[in-house]
Protein 1
Amino acid sequence: MKIAVAGDHGGFRLKNEVIRLLRESGIEFEDFGTFSEEPADYPDFALAVAEAVGGGKFERGILCCGTGIGVAVAANKVPGIRAAQCHDTFSARASREHNNANILTMGQRVIGPGLAGDIVKTWLQAEFQGGRHARRVKKISSIEQKYSRC
Ligand code: RB5
């Protein structure tokens, strides 16, 4: 599995923790920035990861900002993206099993690195359950298609 990772200045340290965990676990990833704590605009990094995942070059993405909200909102504008902000392991698992989330977002100002690590591990291990959930995720795609024609 290849993971696209990015975040703004508000998620810089959390993104580094995520990268450390991916490296330790031998999971392939690419870091799309930002590369310092200098102020940077979160939609730029959300777009880079969302396009990498939506375009099929990466199976999944992980985005960090101060809250995990801005990157989720921005990433979800890209067709094919289901970005889920998760700050607990229950939601992380459900976002995969029920919503087939392909991007995980987290906020550095909300959770610590220990919990973030558990969330990432849970999210990467959980699989989409399909069945009734597939029908619902298909309906999400239909909404996207309906408005892409406008
Ligand atoms: C940056 O200050 C902050 O607004 C950003 O990291 C994020 O939390 C936005 O949703």
Protein 2
Amino acid sequence: MGTGYNRRSSTRMWGGRFSGDTNDLVQAFGASVEVDKRMALEDIEGSIAHASMLRAQGILTEQECSTICAGLESIREDILAGKFVWDIALEDVHMNIEHELTKRIGSVGGKLHTARSRNDQVATDLRLWLRRTGEEITGEFHQFRSVLVDMAEKHLGVIMPGYTHLQVAQPVLFSHHMMAYYAMFTRDSERLSQALDRMNYSPLGAGALAGTGFEIDRAATAKQLKFEDVALNSMDAVSDRDFVLDFLSCASIVMVHLSRLSEELILWSSQEFGFITLPDSHTTGSSIMPQKKNPDMCELIRGKTGRVCGSLMALLMTMKGLPLTYNKDMQEDKEGVFDAADTIRMSLRIYSTMLVDIQLHPERMRNAAGSAYSNATDLADYLSRKGVPFREAHEIVGRLVAICLEEGIPLESLPLEKMQEISPLVGPEIRECLRLDRVVNARSSLGGTATTEVERQLKLARLQLSRETE
Ligand code: ARG
């Protein structure tokens, strides 16, 4: 049997009612161990909590419990040392570990699964795995958000164009632009923490679907595993995967945000923009064009957004027609969520290391910011402050822009008399009003781009970041 996957029914952990062997293909197709072995430590942690509870409830003796726990500990050591041999014939991480336990400690190992099913076991393991991984990712967020604030602080004063429709709109501080991302990634991090809080309820003890007749103590295992409480309804506990969807939605939104930032860095580092130079450490060359320096990391992160959103979509589709409670379809939940977690963790780390070494070209940014009549709104504002209704002011400035376009000059170069021909209200102080720094610093409404307002954001961000590490 070429593949070596076939097993006698005595090796299968549910073999009793079967007389025939499992087809090779079925075994290979149904096995998930290559994927779910990543939850091995969580599986052992859950099993130890379960065994301790069974002991406390008098369902296992002291001796049985300590033999089981010692066996599990020795398996844990082997897994950590990379010595554990996984067997695809044993289907998944749960049965691999349980089978090995019995091999090591004898038939008492078979008592571990009392009052438990793989259905509540897998739901518990995955929640524990996501909780741990999610917390690590929150740490990556913290680092990345600190780097954003550092950058915004370091370059305070650099003016760049702000865009709408990717057309120059109004000048802004580069720091204001970076702090916009800080706000987005702060929400992403909070969203992830909220999802982790929401999933922090223990399914253990739900059994296959209906609970168990043994006198178990679900609150005890929940407490030992540091869950907030139990997931009360046993059918819900084993059958929903909304916590995985929650995590994947968070991951998808993070990737969409990173993808937008990537797109901007790609544009800004192009010859046409020339606003920034990406560090050599995070760019690559071309095998044919010696002059090239490509923003590969930004592109890859933008590209990987597809697979993370794809995993969300895949699991939504997997779940949509499933009757309660557990269905084998749900085994498909892990690959996508593991991949999404790896992808956001790596992407955040790459960004944290890349941003610190980005070089700005403030002259280019400033020139671009002053182009394309980006101060036209300020002229209209000036007129409306003098009592001209804004709509009319808009119309007047539009005509002035048309004249300047014709002559190929910026607004501030149009002689005062010419301006006064269109609007006699314009006075000599207009020159000052149209200066780039003035234009930026005039936008001092709460949360605007004026230096004072960006400083406010920076201060609050610093406070927020330092509170998170308390
Ligand atoms: N490997 C399975 C999964 O990930 C574990 C649960 C199996 N339960 C069952 N009744 N077949 O979904």
